[in-house]
Amino acid sequence: WDQERIALPPRGPLELPLTVLEVGCAGHFELITQAEKPDGDGFPLSTLPHGLPPYAMELVSELEQRFLSNPEWLPIHHFERSHSFWPREKDIQSLLEVDVTPVHSTLQAERNPTTGELLGFREALADNMGLSAKNSLSFQRAPGPPDQALRGSSTNYPFWPGGMDEPSLEQIEMREELEEEIDFEKELLTVPPGWKKGVEFTKQGIPFWSMASPGLLTLTSLLEALDNFELGASSDEEEKAEKDKKEEKRKKKKGKGTEDAPPQPAPLQRANSLEELVLKEVTQAPQLVPQASSAPPAAEPPKEQWAIPVDITSPVDDFYKRIPNPAFRWPFEPDVFQKQAILHLEKHDSVFVAAHTSAGKTVVAEYAIALSQKHMTRTIYTSPIKALSNQKFRDFKNTFGDVGLLTGDVQLHPDASCLIMTTEILRSMLYNGSDVIRDLEWVIFDEVHYINDAERGVVWEEVLIMLPDHVNIILLSATVPNTLEFADWIGRIKRKKIYVISTLKRPVPLEHHLYTGNSQKTQNELFLLVDARGNFLTKGYYAAMDAKKERASKHSQTFGAKQPTHSGSGPGQDKSVWLSLLDMLRKRDQLPVVAFTFSRNRCDDNAAALTTVDLTSSTEKSEIHIFFQKCIARLKGSDRQLPQVLHMVDLLKRGIGVHHSGVLPILKEVIEMLFAKGLVKILFATETFAMGVNMPARTVVFDSIRKHDGTNFRDLVPGEYIQMAGRAGRRGLDTTGMVIILCKAQVPEMADLHRMMLGKPTQLQSQFRLTYTMILNLLRVEALRVEDMMKRSFSEFHSRKDSKVHEHMIAQLSRTLASMEQVDLSGQLRDLEDYYQRVAELQETRQLIQKRIMESVNGMKALSVGRVIIVNNREHTNALGVILQVRHTRGLSLAHVSSDATNRTFTTLVLCEKTPEERGLAGSRTNGRGTPDVPLPDDLLLTKLFLPEGPCGHTLEKLNPADISGITTKTLRVIPERILDDFKKRQMPRFRCVCNWKGGFTQTPHFTSKPRCDLASLLLISMSFCLARYGPHLGGFSDPSLLFPLQFVRLRERRRVQEELARLLYLLSDQSLLLLPEYQQRVQVLQELRYVDAGGAVQLAGRVACEISNHELLLTELLLENVLTALRPEEIVALLSCTVCQHRTQGEEPQLPSTLKQVLFGCPSPFIGDGGPFAEIARLTDVQEGIIVRCIQRLDETCRDVRKAARVIGEPTLHAKMEAASNMIKRDIVFAASLYTQ
């Protein structure tokens, strides 16, 4: 049966086993006709791909392959492959929906002007309703979203800065009237702003309006005909009224007295002939003065005084009569300077309080805060450092309650009436158009002398320039010499009076001492150097020197002469000095003490060396322990066991503290609070402790008076010394403050000590510089210019403070220039302008060469007694003279003065006409001869010397170096004393004699005018070549006509006025700005990087850079090059740490992943945020813990900036990674809340 074959009928088409097989992943299918197996297993419906895995073709290649290389894919061949579209459904109701328009009217309250009683409301039309933060700088714009009300947005416009003239509607209309008419045939522009190419409206050089047929009348010709067509007198009243209105406007612009009467022609003089008339004009030419100069000079504008000094010597007895209900009261009576400041605050004036340390400047700030709360406005208090902001927040919070704090990572009570922040945050709020500025009444700048900081001083200037007009300014500073100058600059740029209030003396006077002790026997070697009255006592200085010498002699007798003659500054010696000093201060009850040491490591070493010192009682130890444990209770266990924390506990219990940037922030706050309570007896601190911290001590000690300023070692300047020494003396507790300078090695020089203690403090100086952030923030606002910011900087104050005077002089010179007679340049005078230009260049070059020769050694040797020189001044032209005497202008002989060539006078015997009458007659006869006012080519080139026309005479002249035009090689043997005595004797009438010498020379004797000096300077050589080129040029001019002197004087006067006018216009223009070349170079960099386009519009990269505060260009390039997106969050943190951590380390470099090695070529070792505890991070490096914390905090700010920039460019992946990175680096003790905010 199995062997039998069963014959089956053939299968039909519908019975075939057809199956679709998917081959690979490319979307190809095959037809399978195999039947299923008996066990039911069928053929698989898909197969794995063979070879390499599939990949997506690049879009560019696909477009080239499908569309460019294969035209059949283009829709022009097959319309079915064109873009699909869906039919639009009609919705008639949508036409009825419109956006909500802003309300064009508002309600205004009507009040009784006497009592303020509300009478009702009235509806008033509101202007500028379409304004917003994206298109306007006006306060009339609508407020932004609530989430941007505090810090603003980088896309917002700032509010209009105060002091800059905001254009009004009248000014815009006036500008339109003053606009010049445009020539529509020649002055049409063809390229719109921002476009690379434009549209040419011409064809083969033929204007489009002239392309009409010859027989047709064009519209242009009709308009031209209408322009020339007059209808005569019109009876239209409106046209007449409009004409009268324009006439009134024109009269108002010109004002009274501005229109000078047209110059009247001079009366024609009678003469016998035309030639005689011309000669009269020529003779009078040098005395001609422009008509404008004869008119009375216009009154100069009154000098603007913006800084008003306030007299604090007279008491304010009627203070409570003038302010019966003060906004704030203190438990003590304010000082006179405080009362004067309060009186001006009540008048809404801006004040600048420059007072001594601990004088009570904060009282003025407190009253301003209370006054703003009374007025229901807001106040911003700015400080230079974050630590001072936290301290002020605690103080003001306890006093007023409604106080907020804004820092980089902390935001407390942002709706408070008083906001405390750093100056950088206020600058960001001003640039970003924060709505907080609307309600702002006062901005308080504390520690204004911090503007001298080279890195951050520019921030103060930016904020002061950008503040709106309604904001009043309070400046608090230590005593500086140029308070009036600084206040005048602020008042000038803000257009408001600044009242300057300065204190005359400290409330607690200081006594300065030198300390030379170093043991129990010498611990009382304390010598008074400056008493409380400010007298420098040299007796104390010499006593300190004697004590030091006596110890050195005893040391040499004991240990031999080969031993060092003075004690060094080793660790052991420092320890003995500090032990003896503390023992002496404790016996004299002069604790607590602040020891300023200008090195973090030395602070730690000095504190660690005092292991045997215990300055606290058992009660104080218990109080310190309880307070310390309470402060660190919020930290986790590993952070409490940090080496620095354990070491600081041991020091504090013995009354010793350390305060510098390497200490953890929370520990610094603990030390500050314990010091304020009097539990820390000695505090080793660096200079930052004196920056605004109101924590005075009884004594201040200077470990040294030399510091390293980042470049080299130098002595303390008076401002630095006074700032730190001012911490001595507690007001109300001490009668005087003690300041001690340790003399460990040698006693400093007396002159250095006198300059440091009694010298003037450092002046406030501008540190203004251009930054890319500033440029981009101003370029994105069309109405604000970077040039305007530079003009208002403190660095440009001296050159811009006389701008009003310059404008007045420009107007006066313009009127003078318009009233001058025109110069006749026809006929023989056609080359007069070219001649004048050559003469001016020749005289300027000759003056430069003459100055260099006079200043040279050989030139001064040549100008000795007996030297024959060529004299050129108003009395003599190319006259020969002999030097008889050389003296200094102060009357000293040349042998007793330095080689100052400009301060010498030369008594010279000069050849001239016989009598003064003949000199005047010779001067009146031109005879082709020039004068100093009208020089001729021969006079300028020194080719002809002076020859008297009559009897020869001589005169004695005292010449300046400028009067000597040539030094000959001839020297005469003369006896100057006899010649001078003889000349004086012959001035008497009875000794005068007349010589009958005749001028018989027909040719000039040959003298070689050759300066005997070293022309090694390249500048002198080049100028000498220029001087030699003028000979052929000047010799080629034609003989002057009789009108030459008159026209030359006119041209010279006109050119002088034009040059002075051009100089004043240059001073007022942007071209005179000192930083303009740097600004242009920075703009070129931004254009090369495509941050801004050729027209100055900020592009996407520029908007990204506006979001970043530090290293904006570097981080923007990393973002746009997509470098950060491919990295993990911890790798991003490690990469960004290179921009914030730049401290030198001695440890080994960590092992980096390969991805970071490619990016960090040549960069310092980065910090890798791996999420480990802070103790492990501290063990990886020798950098102090406080510096690590500061770097991590700055790193978090950088991550926040990058996160905002990622949102701008639309990178959600990078935004999420930066969010994760910020959370990753926030360690417990790093971001522990400040104790001042709890």
Automatic annotation (TrEMBL):
Keywords assigned by UniProt, alphabetized: ATP-binding, Coiled coil, Cytoplasm, Helicase, Hydrolase, Nucleotide-binding, RNA-binding
GO molecular function, one term: RNA binding
Database matches in Pfam families: DEAD, DSHCT, Helicase_C, MTR4-like_stalk, Ski2_N
Domain (Helicase ATP-binding): residue spans on this chain: 342-498
Subcellular location: Cytoplasm
UniProt feature coiled coil, ranges: 825-852
Database matches in CDD domains: DEXHc_SKIV2L, SF2_C_Ski2
Main localization, broad class: cytoplasm
GO biological process: nuclear-transcribed mRNA catabolic process, 3'-5' exonucleolytic nonsense-mediated decay; rescue of stalled ribosome
Region (Disordered): 234-269, 553-574
Protein name per its UniProtKB record: SKI2 subunit of superkiller complex
